[in-house]
Automatic annotation (TrEMBL):
Species of provenance: Patiria miniata (Bat star)
High-level lineage: Eukaryota, Metazoa, Echinodermata, Eleutherozoa, Asterozoa
Chief localisation class: membrane
GO biological process: intracellular protein transport; vesicle-mediated transport
GO cellular component, one term: clathrin-coated vesicle membrane
Name of the featured protein: MHD domain-containing protein
CDD domains from the UniProt entry: AP-1_Mu1A_Cterm, AP1_Mu_N
């Protein structure tokens, strides 16, 4: 990767904190960074990579900060951006919120972390759980300075040795978010499923876990392609603990897990998704006096499943007032600060259809359609259900002491960017 330096800048381009790793770049060169950004914006060529002379700047924007890496070498740009996002992730775990104020309050700690995350421009220890074992927010006396945990020099750098639990358990959640865009005619314009396998591991020792999914490639390799229901996963990304060579050879997901909570893998499915909650809307606008809404919501999943805490968010004109609602289930609430009505349904079983009517006065005399019609958005969560049909076939726990452990598996489907145009 060969990073030369990392800078944290505020929105005006003032350096809050910086770390020079290689000494081959003039640290004052970052003073030109904001001017370069403004120049590219004026030209309409906004890019996260800017070259000035012999120095290349690579940056991300987070909250009110610019995180800027610079290099004089032919750096691996993808790795640099991954590292910048990793720095954000680690600092967020330490300070809960990464912003200008938290940087000013934690200079010393951030310098310590930057020294451990990157060494001479190369990634070093990036696992926040391991970092938290020896870089703490508690002051240390020199004579009892903490020793770095052995995990840093181990092959398994994400897990410390000697972890012990009285009750050994593993919790595995398969969480799928549905991104959907439906036009006003009811046609699905865009749909995809973004999934993640999240784990909470409370196991003693150095266990090896093996996870089996109904993976289409695995089923075809083992001659079960047509017999069992399988899922073709795309854009699979794994936590560093997964043995990639094993997965590439025989599609086995084998790993020694970190202790506690982590995301094992993520995936995406570009597939045609039938809208789980179908929305129909009729909006009648009476000139300069009132507007009436009739919203019909229908659950298009199996009857044995139930969506919880469904919020159907209907945008209304900015000048609407005197709301009146009538619902067959749940309740409707007007949020004037958001110019929207939220229809909340606590429990929405599969195969059901509900109705909501709303009436508003429109006091002002404005061009009705000038503001356009923003889409209706839907929020929901369906437990014990996956849209893709992914299944955990087994989760094996192998540890030399031979203890018995309880694996718990849970499936959840929720909304992602779920919008219905009106």
């Amino acid at each position: 990767m060969s990073l030369s330096a990392v800078f944290f800048l505020d929105v005006k381009g003032k350096v809050l904190i910086s770390r020079n790793y290689r000494g081959d770049v003039d640290m004052s060169s970052v003073d030109k960074f904001m001017m370069l950004i403004l120049d590219t914006e004026e030209e309409g060529q906004v890019s996260p990579i800017i070259t000035h002379g012999a120095v290349t700047f690579m940056y991300i924007k987070y909250n009110n900060l610019y995180l800027v890496a610079c290099s004089k070498k032919n750096a691996n740009v993808a790795l640099v951006f991954t590292m910048l996002h990793k720095i954000v992730e680690v600092l967020t775990e330490y300070f809960k919120e990464l912003e200008e104020e938290s940087i000013r309050d934690n200079f010393v700690l951030i310098y310590e972390l930057l020294d451990e995350l990157i060494d001479f421009g190369y990634p070093q220890t990036t696992d926040s759980k391991i970092l938290q074992e020896y870089i703490t927010q508690v002051g240390q006396k020199l004579e009892i300075a903490p020793k770095p945990p052995p995990a840093i020099t181990n092959a398994v750098s994400w897990r410390s040795e000697g972890v012990r639990y009285r009750k050994n358990e593993v919790f595995l959640d398969v969480i799928e978010s549905v991104n959907l865009l439906v036009n006003s005619n009811g046609n699905v314009l865009r749909s995809e499923i973004v999934g993640a396998v999240k784990m909470r591991v409370f196991l003693s020792g150095m266990p090896e876990l093996r996870l089996g999914l109904n993976d289409k490639v695995l089923f075809e390799n083992t001659g079960r392609g047509g017999k069992s229901k399988s899922v073709e996963l795309e854009d699979v990304k794994f936590h560093q603990c997964v043995r990639l060579s094993r997965f590439e050879n025989d599609r086995t997901i084998s790993f020694i897990p970190p202790d506690g909570e982590f995301e094992l893998m993520s995936y995406r499915l570009n597939t045609h998704v039938k809208p789980l909650i179908w929305i129909e809307s009729v909006i009648e606008r009476h000139s300069h006096s009132r507007v009436e809404y009739m919203i019909k919501a229908k659950s298009q999943f199996k009857r044995r499943s139930t969506a919880n805490n469904v919020d159907i968010i209907i945008p209304v004109p900015n000048d609407a007032d005197s709301p009146k609602f009538k619902t067959t289930v749940g309740y409707a609430k007007y949020l004037p600060e958001s110019s929207a009505v939220v229809w909340h349904i606590k429990s929405f079983p599969g195969g059901k259809e509900y109705l909501m009517r709303a009436h508003f006065n429109l006091p002002s005399v404005e061009a009705e359609e000038a503001e356009g019609r923003p889409p209706i958005s839907v929020k929901f969560e369906i437990p014990y259900f996956t849209t893709s049909g992914i299944q955990v076939r087994y989760l094996k726990i192998i540890e030399k002491s031979g203890y018995q452990a309880l694996p718990w598996v849970r499936y959840i489907t929720q909304n992602g960017d779920y919008q219905v145009r009106v």
